[in-house]
């Protein structure tokens, strides 16, 4: 039996992307298809989307969808169906996708529209706070002909969509919905909280993160709710698309290679040195490809850079974020010209080059629901150095004595992110790099691991079938 799923999100690769959410939403249809699941993706009609789906068919209209005229357009994303909520008053705007004063209205409208059509599907799958009101609209009544099963995926519980209580009157919900087991949250309206209350099942993007968010340190105020629903919480690790992230076929690399031909990576390393103005050297070339934020542990990494250079390492950084952290990394580059280089911003082809030529990638996150850059690093032989948290802990095998003896190590883990743990992990990596055979083993182990969507797709399909009684 083929199951039909409506996957609702605020972004989806390759049409629109600000982060890993888009990669996951874009990859799920292909991941689920081999397991008897047909996925329709629903996203807002941002300006860039309209240009990409010219000639799309109108399949539904709303004269007033939370105060805005809206149409639903049918198109395709790759080989799979796509629905676009065309509401110019809400989404046809220049600038970034998020941060507008009326984000509550924009994404409540997306959720309401999804709930209205969800009866045509077996499962409604909402992603993050921007789509989280969809299960709530199903719970409290919508225009759906029937109520499908619902799944709420938390990609990062730190982003919750918490708004003033005054918006409730305009959400087109019954008064009973404003309750502690409904949409009310700390005296306001909580979009993610509402989805977590209403959905039949909750997923997060790694097993460790699913356990972590039951604790106050990681739950961001929602740990009590997660704990109360622990029997419905599932951790499913994200995958990566080998059609996009494959060093043997990557057009962004000057030299393509495989686990059997690691020597070809040297050409890519030279290209990084030239692009970033780095000196050639015998020590490891580290990279960072990240948002420069507290969550990512970038404030701690800055304090370790002098020691990294003193140990013979170099660093090529690509990222942007908090102004004071951007300034701190640029200051480190000024202190160590030719040893540290920084590119503020984001460049997709350059990120591929960094994975394909740097020796190791630093990911010292304080919390990380899943993480994708470490998966790209493993696939590209760019050895990950990660904090022991969330998906980082689930996907990187630390090069401790037991793992080395068993021949399964793929990188380096460190404990709670601070100067001492991170500096020690960097020192361990530098020492391992001085042993070429050991380093090549770490690279090959990572490259041979399977982080495709195959297993994750099966687990999502199993969850859908269990919710619909079709297992």
TrEMBL record:
Residues 5-227 form the Starch synthase catalytic domain. InterPro entries: Glyco_trans_1, GS/SS, Starch_synth_cat_dom. ADP-alpha-D-glucose binds at residue 17. It holds the Pfam family Glyco_transf_5. Residues 279-430 form the Glycosyl transferase family domain. Keywords: Glycogen biosynthesis, Glycosyltransferase, Transferase. Gene3D superfamilies: Glycogen Phosphorylase B. CDD domains: GT5_Glycogen_synthase_DULL1-like. Pathway: Glycan biosynthesis; glycogen biosynthesis. It comes from the Bacteria. Its EC number is 2.4.1.21. GO terms for molecular function: alpha-1,4-glucan glucosyltransferase (ADP-glucose donor) activity. It catalyses: [(1->4)-alpha-D-glucosyl](n) + ADP-alpha-D-glucose = [(1->4)-alpha-D-glucosyl](n+1) + ADP + H(+). HAMAP family: Glycogen_synth. Belongs to the glycosyltransferase 1 family. Bacterial/plant glycogen synthase subfamily. Synthesizes alpha-1,4-glucan chains using ADP-glucose. This is Glycogen synthase. It comes from Sphingomonas kyungheensis.
